[in-house]
């Protein structure tokens, strides 16, 4: 194989990284695995994937085929859902992610929400709740009523199951909404996808935010949903800055355009293994990454 010159910029390294992953995904997508009418795999020594498929697809409706890429994703998601993800900010209790719902394996952003000073104990909105982990943390911190929103049906089901499992169903209300629920709250929290790029698979929607659409939607709608004197908490990594995809000045300008001012910022460095892996193609950006909780309010 022909050796390529090192990437000239972090942005070029990122695009090469995504191209390599895309090639691998296409290759695995060309390998098809047959499924029987009950989601069994009629191949020797094949694992039992019936429950994993049922969790992702619902009841079987006859024989079918699935790509190897998707099947591997189903199996991995089933394992996460079975064992759950331990969340120190919940006292070691576990959150159980569904297939296609972002798993909170990087706990530093959850810890930021657990440690930031609360402006209220009455009401909070959690925008794009996913597994419901941040809503659960807010409720455990003593907020009486948390309204958690998402527009993905699987995420809504996942969040409802998690808050019920944690004994918080009376305090956390999970509703379908495109970003904000009706009304205003003294605390509005959002952890949007961190990288402004186009997802190439459903599992990437929690990582990549095309043209920072969710980020800008949250910022531009925040003033209309904050109670007087309230705070908006934006949890965002600066990985995109280190990759040359979104400069800090662009983020600060977005705050200004939305009529917001920064009260404070809490920072944490990542502790996941790839931040310390020099063989990772994005190592320099990952090693410099900082995740921040921006405390915002209206001007």
**Helix-strand category:** alpha/beta
Q: So what's the oligomer here?
A: single chain
Describe the largest sheet. Answer: 7 strands, mixed
Number of domains: 2
CATH superfamily of the largest domain: Vaccinia Virus protein VP39
Sheet-strand content, in percent, reads 15-25%
Mean pLDDT comes to 91
Radius of gyration: 20 Å
Describe it for me?
With 299 residues, the chain is an alpha/beta fold. It folds into two domains: 10-82, no CATH class; 85-298, Rossmann fold (3-Layer(aba) Sandwich). 35% of the residues lie in helices and 21% in strands. The protein is built from ten helices and eleven strands. It has helices at residues 10-30, 50-57, 68-83, 108-115, 133-140, 153-165, 213-222, 239-242, 248-257, 283-288; strands at 32-35, 64-67, 85-86, 94-95, 123-127, 145-150, 172-176, 185-190, 226-237, 260-268, 291-298. The strands form three sheets. A seven-stranded mixed sheet has the order 7-6-5-8-9-11-10, with helices on both faces. A two-stranded antiparallel ribbon has the order 1-2. Strand 8 (185-190), helix 7 (213-222) and strand 9 form a beta-alpha-beta unit. Helix 2 packs across helix 3 (68-83). It starts with 9 loop residues before the first helix and ends with a strand. The mean pLDDT is 91.
Q: Which labels suit this protein?
A:
21% strand; 11 strands; seven-stranded mixed beta sheet; Rossmann fold; globular; 299 residues
Short description, anyone?
The protein is an alpha/beta fold and 299 residues long.
Explain the layout of strands and helices.
Layout: H1 10-30, E1 32-35, H2 50-57, E2 64-67, H3 68-83, E3 85-86, E4 94-95, H4 108-115, E5 123-127, H5 133-140, E6 145-150, H6 153-165, E7 172-176, E8 185-190, H7 213-222, E9 226-237, H8 239-242, H9 248-257, E10 260-268, H10 283-288, E11 291-298
Helix pairs in contact: 2-3
């Amino acid at each position: 194989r022909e050796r390529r010159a090192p990437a000239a910029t972090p942005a070029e390294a990122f695009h090469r990284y995504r191209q390599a992953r895309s090639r691998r995904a296409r290759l695995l997508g060309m390998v098809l695995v047959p499924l029987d009418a009950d989601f069994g795999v009629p191949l020797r020594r094949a694992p039992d994937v019936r429950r994993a498929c049922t969790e992702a697809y619902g009841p079987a409706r006859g024989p079918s085929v699935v790509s190897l890429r998707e099947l591997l994703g189903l199996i991995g998601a089933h394992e996460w859902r079975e064992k759950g993800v331990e969340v120190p900010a919940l006292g070691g209790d576990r959150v159980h992610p569904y297939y296609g719902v972002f798993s909170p394996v990087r706990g530093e952003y959850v810890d930021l929400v657990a440690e930031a000073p609360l402006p209220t104990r009455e009401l909070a909105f959690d925008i794009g709740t996913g597994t419901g982990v941040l809503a659960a943390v807010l409720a455990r911190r003593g907020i009486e009523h948390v309204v958690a929103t998402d527009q993905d049906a699987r995420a809504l089901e996942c969040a409802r199951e998690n808050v019920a499992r944690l004994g918080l169903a009376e305090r956390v209300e999970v509703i379908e909404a495109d970003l904000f629920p009706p009304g205003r709250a003294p605390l509005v929290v959002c952890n949007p996808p961190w990288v402004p790029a186009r997802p190439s698979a459903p599992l990437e929607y929690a990582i990549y935010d095309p043209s920072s659409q969710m980020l800008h939607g949250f910022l531009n709608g925040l003033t209309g949903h904050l109670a007087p004197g309230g705070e908006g908490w934006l949890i965002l990594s600066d990985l995109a800055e280190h990759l040359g995809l979104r400069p800090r000045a662009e983020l600060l300008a977005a705050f200004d355009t939305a009529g917001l001012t920064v009260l404070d910022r809490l920072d944490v460095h990542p502790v996941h293994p790839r931040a310390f892996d020099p063989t990772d193609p994005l190592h320099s950006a990952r090693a410099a990454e900082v995740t921040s909780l921006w405390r915002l309010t209206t001007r």
